[in-house]
Amino acid sequence: MKDGFIKVAACTPEIQVADVDFNVDKIISQLEKCREEGVKVAVFPELCITGYTCQDLFFQNALLDKAMEGVVKIAKTTADSDMLVAVGVPVRANGKLYNCAAVIQDGEVRAFVPKTHLPNYNEFYEARHFAPYRGECAAIDLREYGQLEFIPPMEQTVFVCEEIPELVVGFELCEDLWVADPVSNYLAKAGATLICNLSASDEVIGKDSYRRQLVSNQSARLVAGYIYCSAGDGESTQDMVFSGHNIIAENGSILAESRLFENGITISEIDFKKLAFERRKISTYPASAEWDYSSKDSGFLDKDNISRERFSLEMGETALTRKFAKTPFIPSNQAERNERCHLILQMQSHGLMKRIAHTHSKTVVIGISGGLDSTLALLVCVMAMDLLKRPHTDIVAVTMPCFGTTKRTRSNAEILCDALRVTFREVDISKAVLQHFEDIGHDYNDHSVVFENGQARERTKVLMNIANQVSGMVVGTGDLSELALGWATYNGDHMSMYGVNASIPKTLVRHIVQYYGDTCTSDTLRDVLYDILDTPVSPELLPTDESGTEMTQKTEDLVGPYELHDFFLYYGIRWGFEPSKVKRLAKYAFEGDYPDEVIDKWLKTFYRRFFSQQFKRSCLPDGAKIGSVTLSPRGDWRMPSDAVAKLWLEDIDK
Question: Most exposed of 9, 316, 392, 478 (fewest Cβ within 10 Å)?
Fold first, then answer.
């Protein structure tokens, strides 16, 4: 359970209808496998002890008695295990029969959670056999079936983990999710962060897709983990077919999913600290009720009649099997990635279009270097002018070569501007920078930060003054990753009138430019975009070699790989993970790519720079939020510029 990860399982055993002994043996066999895998919460299908399709056999006491014996037998096999287990079973109470989840742990049946909504339409006839739960409670005496220590209640219950308070488990059964107001809504309001659904959903054409969307959307709406476990092979095929479709979701993301018509165990790990962080962050998420733990009988919500029980788990490190993308900002599926890139370009260009129209700017002015960021910003400017039905010549692209500009980037800048038919200007700033060095008494051979920043600020001055000349506004090119690291010259490339890339991480910038190149119709434009993509990222502020072709300064050699920094940004800032947890995930995701000491080095660099460079983010130009992470002081991120990084740096060395 280290770092909040809990291993969970959805289990679909082979069954035989009404053969309780056979079914119980198969359930116990899968529980043993779950125990070997380190599973802490295991869910089995609806009515799996008897079979969901018993029909009028549910009226037979022989079957119901045997089912209770089966529940107790399963419970006894968990005597030396802290795994929380839920199995589906019919339960007699209050003179009625209820469709229940038997919740089991540490050798005992802890509770029976009844089904609230009974489908009685189309192929379903549950109301013929079962009573719907309406808040009534009952004590289920299992002494005659072999459980002597504890008489479990039948009531709606959530289970709170003593060791991990973020883990609160609630149960609903099949139709309880499919109705307009699902039971899990109330469980989440009562604090549940994990919803377990015991289901016997039959398979018809298209239902698997709808089921997947339903589970994903409910987990997102509730900001919860969700285990959906469905009946499979062995149920009667008299009128229906069951596919054993199991799904494990976390806040809208499908973590694991079984193949249809294959009984078995589906396992993944749900991050409950991540869920708790997101719930705390969302101000509209309701607070769970306050509970009095001194009395068991006080654990009820007056309105929703949900009791609250505590359970315990042995602490230990959860082995991870779920995937963590190296590039979390980028969809792995190409079609989805292309769709994402198209949408981002639309968002960027519409944001800029509004600003141009509002300021009545006759032009937009942009510094073009032949690098990725300025290329993306220029493409956005072109799209904005197209939306405004204005000529591309209203874009003034300025290249400003100096000591570190290579022939390749200078050439690419001009070819790009020519292919896009924008107004191209070149202003060599070498003389102005040398004059500035002379004015302030700086030696040209001293290639310190003064040497670099003097060029960056001169370029910004040129852009601002050209914008005054042509009644324009300066469009900024800096991206989100640079803002996180403070990799920008204060009042240099840090400043503009509107920053179109401010919410785009560096790893994503590359894919957007790639997408534009793949989909454009001009061979010239495509070729130059591809060459820009192949050019190393560099500020080009240190002198080149004598030929003017070789860069002597590469950003990732100085500040670290952007794929690592974007990973740190996503998990450390977006999700608020502790640095030690970010380190663990990075080593897991990048295993074989970077040695552990390299990840440690750049993680410390990330946090050190993130804290020390906040003053640059505190006065950012405007720029539209594009993704779930933004560092605008007016938007998602407000941080004191003098906050101390000591706590975060110490945590890395844990």
Answer: 316
Angle at 217 between CA 215 and CA 221, to 5 degrees: 120
540 is a catalytic site residue: no
Identify the active-site residue in 48, 100, 174, 196: 174
Tokens coding 2: 């280290």
CA distance 41 to 225: 12
- Which tokens hold the place of 612? 């020390």
Residues 6 or more apart whose CB falls under 8 angstroms from that of 41 comprise 6, 7, 8, 9, 83, 84, 85, 169, 194, 196, 227
Query: Which one of 115, 273, 506, 616 is the catalytic residue?
Result: 115
Which residues, including other chains, have CB under 8 Å from residue 534's CB and lie 6 or more apart? none
Structure tokens at 342: 């198209």
Residue with tokens 């009720």: 289
Q: How confident is the model at residue 501 (pLDDT cuts 50, 70, 90)?
A: very high
Give residue 49's pLDDT band: very low, low, confident or very high (50, 70, 90): very high
Beta bridge partners of 161: 311
131: tokens are 């009573």
Listing DSSP states for 44-94 in one string gives --TTTTT-TT-GGGGG-HHHHHHHHHHHHHHHHTTTT---EEEEEEEEEET
* 11 flagged as catalytic: no
Q: What is the pLDDT of residues 139-179, one digit of tens each?
A: 999 999 998 889 999 999 999 999 999 999 999 999 999 99
Please say if 654 is a catalytic residue.
Answer: no
Give me the catalytic one of 11, 46, 69, 583: 46
Contact between 233 and 14 under an 8 Å Cβ cutoff? The reply is yes
Quote the CA–CA distance of 37 and 78 in Å, as a whole number: 15
Task: Give residue-wise pLDDT tens across range 410-434.
Answer: 899 999 999 999 999 999 999 999 9
Q: What is the pLDDT of residue 298?
A: 36
Rg (CA), the chain: 31
CA distances from 321 to 256, 268, 305 (A): 10, 6, 37
Instruction: Give the type of residue at 468.
Output: N
d(CA 471, CA 489): 25
Q: Which helix (H) or strand (E) holds 589?
A: helix 579-589
Provide the terminal-to-terminal Cα distance of the chain, rounded to the nearest Å: 17
The DSSP string of 374-421 is HHHHHHHHHHHHHHTT--GGGEEEEE---TT--HHHHHHHHHHHHHHT
The total of other beta-carbon atoms located within 10 Å of residue 2's CB is 11
104 three-state secondary structure? strand
Burial of residue 320, with CB atoms counted within 10 A of its CB: 0-12 exposed, 13-18 middle, 19 or more buried: middle
